[in-house]
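Reviewer has doubts. Consider these tokens.
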Amino acid sequence: MSALLRCVRDMHHVFRVVIRNMKHPYLQGPSDVYYTLTLVGQRKPFYISEVAKNTLNPTWDYIQASDFLVELPYRVGAVNINVFLAFSGGDASASSSSSASSSGQDNGSNKESDMGANVNQSYRRRWSRSANASSGDELLLQLRVDFHDLEWIHPLKESTLPSFPPNAVLLYLSDGIYVQSKIKDTMDRTDATVRKAVRALKAKVKSHEQKAAIVEGAQAAEQLTQEGSASVNVASEESARARRIQEGTTSVWKRAVSHKSNTDSRRPRVAPRKSELNDLLNHAARMMAYQAQLLEVKADIAKAQETLNARVARRNTNTQRARDIRLRQQRAANLRRLVQHERALLADDRQRVLELRRRLAPHAQLVAQQSRSLYTDKYKQLIAQAERSLQINKRTLAGVRRNLLARQRKLISHLSAIYPIRRVTSPGIGPASSGGSKSLSIRDVVLSPATMAASTGDEHVSTALGYAAHFVFMFAKYFEIPLRYRIVFRGSRSGICDDVNSNVVYPLYNGDQQRFLIACNFLLKDIVQIARVRHPQRKINFGKSVLSHLDALVSLEIPH
């Protein structure tokens, strides 16, 4: 996060302009360039920079408000930057005219005044030709800088900067270095590509190190195997020598036995000579000694083989351990570098936050002072006047509500006069007659549970239910109550619909007995809903029939 907020950045914070990696078809190498600043929508510049000599990465310092050619507004949010190639021929002519004018004067003050006039003339010539590049200084770069769209890329205290794309314009503000958002996006993509290549290179180096460690372990194992093979060859030679000695002893013994048998068959038995017996005993002793040496050599071979296997296993273990240690050291080094980088970023963020707090402290004090100044007697009077107006409006609203309630109840009384509900003593169907039990009628049409159950297809029941449905419909309309079950008023052929579950219209006249009873139940639920909305805290005794429910609802609104 940059220290300067986007809403407060403007031209007054810029003190240095830098361009990196200038590229243009007219540029064949390092050249002399300068830039101008103009307001958006205007052609005349308000600032002309000095000429940067022989460079492709020019830097211009010390931009001050006193150098502006015109007075700028209080807040400048965007400017146009135009970079020109300085025309050497025009400069030479200007210098020759200045030298000619200076040769006719003797004192130094006249020379300085002529030099200032030539510089102003050069500036006027430069601006007069900026619109036509073929006759004056060549326009190399033109862009619009919106200070609200700048992106912070680097602090001021660090001298090393990242690589930039061609024709990148850097603006040095008081808290850091800024570039345009598209330049920042290009730099981010380049950094991502470089990081990806570095990761691939590190992975390749790591694989090469692992291969080198494996080759080193294989060479060590091969050396140990060669040493063991040499020991085995020596033991094999000793074993072959012992075998030859044993075979020679056996052949001597066989020749002696055959010679003895031949002599015994040709001549009479005589006792063997003492020298022959001694020779045989010596051969037997040598044979036993060679057999013992052979066993020792075999034991030495087995021991050397075990030692060789143990050394190979230890070498493999040490190689694996060295590889693990090298990997851990690399990871530790990477983690240390990452921690150092994070610490540096944290230190920069803390410094930036402290700088932001230091800069915002005067603004906070100013806001506090202004808020305290605003809370004066004048605003207290305005607040008191607003409170009095609020009380008057509340009383007016209460009066309007009372008048509305009175008007609604008057309409209900007119509705009850149109559809009067009376108690009659006639159990019959049709107009009320004398005698019988008490029941309710609407517009002199009797409607009771017994009548509804007994008179299937009777027009009197459908007429009475049509009156009741119209009464409920108008009651809900007067009090602006949305009914759960929509009433479809058609006189004696009225119906009621459940729009939530289905679009079927249930009849309030005797046709299908099951659907007729469902419609009557929906009408009773609508009456109960109106009563609960109008009088949620009262306990109401509705009765069992539709007219009893309707009579209880009317008695709540218009007490008798």
